[in-house]
Amino acid sequence: MRQPAKVFTDLLVWQKAHRSVLEVYAYTRGFPRHERSGLAGQFRRAAVSVPANIAEGFRRRGKADKARFYNIAQGSLEECRYYLILAHDLGYGETHELMSLLSEVSRLLDSFTRTLLTPDS
């Protein structure tokens, strides 16, 4: 059985979300210059919001308060998925691997949140 996380960086969901931020930064480096402050900036901010909210929620005391931050992370993750769809449709590069990573983070975050909200957890 896995040891309980002592710090947010112990969480697999945070680790994968952080990796997705690094991948988003790498991906958006290839955007056209005119998108650097537009779509690239919004995409990066949404991506950073996912692990940041997981980290912030980790130390919150009540389940409802924790769940609120994890829900914000989920919303930011969906925002990232949209930006990835838009980037693909604009022809800014291949998106399959990054979309797969975002889907994995989404599944982990959903599972993590469900476990938190389960009675007796």
Automatic annotation (TrEMBL):
Q: Record's GO cellular component, any one?
A: ribosome
CDD domains, per the entry? 23S_rRNA_IVP_like
InterPro entries referenced in this protein's UniProt entry, alphabetically = 23S_rRNA-intervening_sequence, 23S_rRNA_IVS_sf
Could you tell me which SUPFAM superfamilies the record lists for this protein?
Answer: IVS-encoded protein-like (SSF158446)
Gene3D superfamilies linked: 23S rRNA-intervening sequence (1.20.1440.60)
**Keyword annotations from UniProtKB, A to Z:** Ribonucleoprotein, Ribosomal protein
A Pfam family matched in the record: 23S_rRNA_IVP
Q: Which PANTHER family match?
A: FOUR HELIX BUNDLE PROTEIN (PTHR38471:SF2)
Instruction: Supply the name of the protein.
Output: S23 ribosomal protein
- Annotated source species: Truepera radiovictrix (strain DSM 17093 / CIP 108686 / LMG 22925 / RQ-24)
